[in-house]
C-alpha cells in the first residue's frame, strides 16, 4: 500500500484529496453540505440558549435553575395539588351526604365510583377478583343478586365497616354454622349424606338414586331450618345463605355440600373501618353496589 500523504487535486471532480492513497485509490476531501453545517451550528446555539434559559446542569445542590425558572416537576406538583383540592372538595361532599344521596347525585356518583374502583382494586380484588366475580371456596361473586348479608347500600356499608367473623371488631357480622359431623358431631355419615342430597334437591339438582330424601328433610327441619328456613330460602339477618338458587359459595356438588355439613365453613372478611377512611368506605360501598347485584 502506498502511504504517500501528499494532497492533490482530483482531475475528474476537481476536489482536493486528503493525501491518503491506497493502492492508487485516493480519498477525496469532500466538504460537508452547507445546510448541514448551518444546522449543526444552530444546534450548538440552541443548546447554549437552553443551558441559559432552562434547568440544565446537575450540581450537588440541585440543577441550575435557568433564567426562566421553568420546572416541569414544579408544574406537576402544582397540578397535583390542584387535583387534590378538587378531590378533597368532592370527598367533603361524600362525607356529609347519605349513601342514597350520593347514588342519586350524578357528579358525586361518578366520583364515588372512580374512588371506589381504585380502593376495590387495592384492597378487595385479591379475594373477590378485579371485576368482583369472586371464586369458589368462600369468595362471593359481587355481580349477582345473591347476598348473604343483604345487598342494599346500608347492608353493604355495614359489612365493609365491620367485616365478617373479624374477631378484632366487636361489631363484626357473625354467622356460625355448626359442624354436624366428625367426632363430636350430632349427625352420622349416613344422615349427613341424606341431608346433603336433600339440600341439592332444594335447588333442583339431581340426587343419588338411593338418597333418603324424607330422612334428609326431617333432619334439615330439625337442625338447619332455624337459620335457613324450612324452605331453605335463607335469612340475611342471620347471614344464612339461600339454598334454593343456583349460586353456591363453596360448590354445589355432593362432596362439597357434604364437607360443609360435616365440618362447617368459616370464611373471614376484614373490617375496613380501621384500615380505610370513612369517605373511601362510602365510595367503596357505592362501587360494590353498582357491580350489578345491589338491592
Overview of the structural elements:
This protein is mainly alpha-helical. It is built from 11 helices and 2 strands, in the order ββααααααααααα. The protein has a two-stranded antiparallel ribbon with strand order 1-2. The radius of gyration is 37 Å and the shape is elongated. The termini are far apart.
Descriptors:
295 residues, mainly alpha, two-stranded antiparallel ribbon, 11 helices, 2 strands, elongated
Oligomer: single chain
What characterizes the major β-sheet?
2 strands, antiparallel
**Can you tell me the overall shape?**
elongated
Order of helices and strands: EEHHHHHHHHHHH
Helix share, percent: 40-55%
Number of DSSP strands?
A: 2
Task: Work out the helix count.
Answer: 11
Alpha carbon gap, first and last residue:
93 Å
Radius of gyration: 37 Å
Concise overview:
With 295 residues, this protein is mainly alpha-helical. Helices cover 46% and strands 3% of the residues.
Amino acid at each position: 500500500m502506498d502511504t504517500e500523504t501528499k494532497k492533490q487535486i482530483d482531475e475528474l471532480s476537481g476536489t482536493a484529496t486528503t493525501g491518503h492513497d491506497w493502492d492508487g485509490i485516493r480519498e477525496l476531501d469532500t466538504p460537508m453540505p452547507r445546510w448541514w453545517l448551518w444546522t449543526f451550528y444552530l444546534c450548538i446555539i440552541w443548546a447554549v440558549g437552553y443551558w441559559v434559559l432552562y434547568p440544565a446542569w446537575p450540581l450537588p445542590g440541585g440543577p441550575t435553575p435557568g433564567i426562566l425558572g421553568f420546572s416541569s416537576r414544579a408544574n406537576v406538583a402544582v397540578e397535583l395539588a390542584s387535583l387534590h383540592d378538587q378531590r378533597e372538595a368532592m370527598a367533603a361532599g361524600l362525607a356529609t351526604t347519605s349513601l342514597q344521596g350520593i347514588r342519586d347525585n350524578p357528579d358525586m356518583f361518578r366520583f364515588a365510583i372512580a374512588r371506589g374502583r381504585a380502593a376495590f382494586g387495592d384492597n378487595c380484588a385479591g379475594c373477590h377478583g378485579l371485576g368482583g366475580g369472586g371464586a369458589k371456596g368462600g369468595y362471593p361473586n359481587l355481580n349477582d343478586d345473591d347476598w348473604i348479608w343483604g345487598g342494599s347500600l346500608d347492608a353493604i356499608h355495614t359489612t365493609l365497616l365491620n367485616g365478617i367473623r373479624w374477631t378484632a371488631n366487636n361489631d363484626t357480622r357473625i354467622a356460625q354454622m355448626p359442624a354436624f359431623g366428625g367426632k363430636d358431631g350430632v349427625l352420622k355419615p349416613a344422615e349427613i349424606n341424606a341431608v346433603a342430597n336433600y339440600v341439592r334437591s332444594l335447588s333442583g339438582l339431581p340426587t343419588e338414586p338411593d338418597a333418603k330424601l324424607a330422612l334428609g328433610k326431617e333432619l334439615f327441619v330439625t337442625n338447619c331450618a332455624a337459620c335457613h328456613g324450612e324452605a331453605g330460602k335463607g335469612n340475611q339477618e342471620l347471614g344464612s345463605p339461600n339454598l334454593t338458587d343456583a349460586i353456591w359459595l363453596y360448590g354445589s356438588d355432593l362432596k362439597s355440600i357434604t364437607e360443609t355439613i360435616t365440618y362447617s365453613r368459616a370464611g373471614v372478611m376484614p373490617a375496613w373501618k380501621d384500615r380505610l377512611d370513612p369517605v373511601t368506605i362510602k365510595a367503596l360501598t357505592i362501587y360494590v353496589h353498582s357491580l350489578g347485584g345491589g338491592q
